[in-house]
Amino acid sequence: MPNRSIFTDACVYVDGMQTLGLATTVTPPNITYKTIEDNSLGAIATQEFNNGKIEAMEAKITFNCFYKDIFSKVAHPFRSVQLAIYGNFIEYAGDEPVDNYGSKLFLRVSPKEFALLGEMNEHENIKPEYTLRVSAARLVVKGEELYNIDISNNILVVGGIDVRGAVLANLGIV
Predict the structure, then answer these.
(1) pLDDT tens-digit series, residues 59-99
(2) Could you say which of 60, 85, 140, 146 is the most buried, measured as most Cβ atoms within 10 Å of its Cβ?
(3) Beta strand 144-150 pairing with 155-158
(4) What stretch of H or E contains 69?
(5) Please, what sign has the CA dihedral across residues 114, 116, 136, 159?
(6) Number of neighbours of residue 80 by Cβ within 10 angstroms
(7) Which CATH class is domain 4-38+45-142?
(8) Which one, of 70, 60, 56, lies nearest residue 20 by Cα?
(9) CA neighbor of 74 nearest in space, from 103, 116, 105
């Protein structure tokens, strides 16, 4: 049985500003590949193929209260913000911890939706949630880049393989 890794802690940075303890929830983007359908005459069924393109991505972040400095960065409609989420994994073999290693998720985001202050309830602090458009995402685990997408620069690298390289060369872009 392979070792299992358990995510134990995280720290969020907004444009380099540490928000340890300030962010209560971060939902990274889901990657959804677009597909093309092929339904040839005489085929038993329709088949879908990935076409190398990705649906628009979004992320969500919830803070434990209103922070004016963070709001002014995240709410600006024409500026991108860099999010860095540093995480910690503990790897187990059975019941025994055998390794402790880090992960880093870097996101370039811009605002999509947010409440001006957050939901207001009697006797409770507000917890503003921001829905953010993601134009770049890079995941590094244990020092190895597992995924890198940068929509603005037409980059898609998965497990160290440049997925878009051949397409860009065929189009005369590189």
Answers:
(1) 998 888 877 888 888 888 899 999 999 988 888 988 888 98
(2) 85
(3) antiparallel
(4) helix 68-74
(5) negative
(6) 19
(7) mainly beta
(8) 70
(9) 116
